[in-house]
Recover the amino acids of this structure.
C-alpha cells in the first residue's frame, strides 16, 4: 500500500509527480541552451523530424546538424522553411537537393 500524506492541498504522490515533471522539463531545457543556438521557430517546426530521424544526437550538436542534412529529403516542409529562415540552410541548397532528388 502506498502511503500518501497531504502537503497543503496537494498529496505527496501528486507533489512528487509534479516535481519529477519540473526536473525532467528543466533537464530538457538545459540541453537546449543558448550555446546550441537553435531558434524557437526551428525547435517547434522540426521537433517531430528530430524525433523521427536524429534523436540519437544532442540538440545543437554538430552531429545533429550532420544528421539533419543527411535526411534532408525526408524533413517536413515546415522544418525546411524554418531552417531556411534561421539561416541553417540556404534556399539555393534546398532547391538543388530537390532537383537532384527529382532526377533520381
Amino acid at each position: 500500500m502506498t502511503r500518501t500524506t497531504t502537503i497543503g492541498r496537494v498529496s505527496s504522490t501528486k507533489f512528487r509527480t509534479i516535481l519529477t515533471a519540473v526536473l525532467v522539463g528543466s533537464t530538457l531545457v538545459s540541453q537546449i541552451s543558448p550555446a546550441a543556438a537553435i531558434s524557437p521557430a526551428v525547435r517547434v517546426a522540426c521537433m517531430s523530424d528530430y524525433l523521427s530521424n536524429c534523436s540519437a544526437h544532442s540538440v545543437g550538436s554538430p552531429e545533429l546538424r550532420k544528421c539533419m542534412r543527411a535526411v534532408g529529403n525526408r524533413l517536413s516542409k515546415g522544418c525546411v522553411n524554418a531552417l531556411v529562415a534561421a539561416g541553417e540552410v540556404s534556399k539555393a541548397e534546398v532547391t538543388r537537393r530537390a532537383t537532384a532528388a527529382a532526377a533520381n
About this structure: Confidence is low (pLDDT under 50) at residues 23-35.
